[in-house]
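S.,

As promised, the Isopentenyl phosphate run. Input:
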Amino acid sequence: MIVLKLGGSVITDKDRPETLDGDSLEQAADAVANALEGEPEDLVIVHGGGSFGHHNASEHGVSTIAGTHDAAAVLEIHGAMKTLNQFVLSRLLDRDVQAVPVHPFSTAHRDDSGDLELPTGQIETMLGEGFVPVLHGDVIPHTGVGATIVSGDELVAELAHDLEADRIGLCSTVPGVLDADEAVIERISAYEDVAAVLGASEATDVTGGMAAKVQALLALEAEASIFGLEGLASFLGGESPGTTIE
Ligand code: IP8
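Predicted complex:
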């Protein structure tokens, strides 16, 4: 069973609010459809927000820890993410991938320690019936603070753990985790191996995000790969493009 994350910045144009990167989304959908034509494996897809959801969240001051009790704000953020989810689903359906939505707002929550709770019975049933569940970063109810953001990366880690995924793939805008010379690091087995290079560039959002991604993936049993869009077909074909995190 594979958990695949399609990065928000891969499938949207991050510089223009609520704009798809149509070509990249089509390319990703082609790779998924081709992979499922051969020997179909159980696949769960999670996508991020990119130019959808993030600006609505920041306008309302909502983050993974700062919540809101304003239902209108919740609906706005959730609505933006549902719009993007619909685009992803329709590109997959166009290619006969039996993709169906799972909206974290309606299934997941955070407890009073901020820990993510994501029931998986619904997703397991979908997989058993031959569907490809497609989740997304979202706003979710959070005990004591109203509603907060759950990122696609958190969903990937939770799903991979709970569903005992065999492989995890993060399709990103970079071809892997990059070293100081911008070369792809092939394998990471301990955070200490890359702390200097990831820590050094922590000031920017993107690399701060990469440090968090690597740490979360190292904590999981299954092997994970971080790769660019050009690596997606080979990942789904069973190879390990980009950086392997073991
Ligand atoms: O792009 C965030 O998901 P991410 C979703 O995976 C939002 O961080 C902002 C609603």
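Residues 8, 48-49, 53-54, 57, 77, 81, 137-139, 149, 151-153 surround Isopentenyl phosphate (CB under 6 Å). The CA atoms of residues 231 and 241 lie 6 Å apart.

- D.
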